[in-house]
Amino acid sequence: MKRICxxxxxxxxxxxxxxxxxxxxxxxxxxxxxxYGVAFYNLENLFDTINNNGSYDLEFSPQGARQWNGAKYRSxxxxxxxxxxxxxxxxxxxxxxxxxxxxxxxxxxxxxxxxEVDKQLVEQGKSTWNLxxxxxxxxxxxxxxxxxxxxxxxxxxxxxxxTTLHIPxxxxxxxxxxxxxxxxxxxxxxxxxxxxxxxxLGGQEQSSYLREAAxxxxxxxxxxxxxxxxxxxxxxxxxxxxxxxxxxxxKVLGAQKKPDGVNPHGFYNPFWSMLDKGIGTLAYRGSWNLxxxxxxxxxxxxxxxxxxxxxxxxxxxxxxxxRATEGTSKGGPLRTFSGGAFLNGYSDHFPTEVFLVKPRQ
Length: 361
Fold this sequence. Notes:
This protein is an alpha+beta fold. It has a single domain (31-356), classed as Deoxyribonuclease I, Chain A, CATH 3.60.10. Helix content is 25%, strand content 29%. It is built from seven helices and 18 strands. Strands 1, 2, 3, 4, 5, 15 and 18 form a seven-stranded mixed beta sheet that branches. It has a seven-stranded mixed beta sheet with strand order 6-7-8-9-14-11-10. A two-stranded antiparallel sheet has the order 12-13. α3 crosses α4 (107-123). The protein is globular and about 60 Å long.
């Protein structure tokens, strides 16, 4: 009898020390963790078929060089919806809480996209996500914008601001505005700055000053947020047209390669080490770049905020069906067009994602 009592006491002690987590939960030590995905996806020229921007929009119209018609547009929408609905894990079965996007023409294409996402989810026998749209028309000459989609069951939207990048002595310069979306994720305040920094047109070194200016603007927006709420989380995401080690990211924004020593108002870039391992989001002439970054603030690191919302891991969502299977771009993103030929692909970029966790009460 004494042995039985001792055995029962030992079992009770083990169960108390190592609780079993439920579905969709993660444990950190003895604490259950809620998990949230925050993702970014360059949708590669998601234009409708209507030419409403003159010569800049002619290319993506039935009369343009790409003969962009209703059938191609609907196929593009369907393909992108498949990519988005695939962004699920065992701990994030309902997909990302937030998804920043770039290279979209207007709010109409986003409305078509989120409808198609829900349509495909229903066809899969799953619950709809009812993604909400935050959109703003940027001054970019091509008419492409950034935007944010969010799941209202996980993210409570509070505010959005859009900031224009001005380049001194160049009044004609136009690019995408930086969109800062603020809300509550897991009850904690989080701001996501969605970017599409200036391209490398004219050469990487010659155009670097433009992306350095964009990085400085992102940092200024973050500093302004911390003036109001010093402890809040900030994420800088987007197609930055630079790699993590380039000056704009590493020096101007100050995003470090390792989380160790990053102060609360500093930044950590988890995608730097990924690129070092040969993992990228777009391929050019046989070499990888990782332009599609999600950079987290020090206030989102466990060392500075163990009891609040904090970073756990990062991923490049290079799903097999998103990859080209032949040609010079084999293994890279299966894009919509190549050399003028319609490939019926997805995007010339892979989506990226970070996973944030918060201890359950």
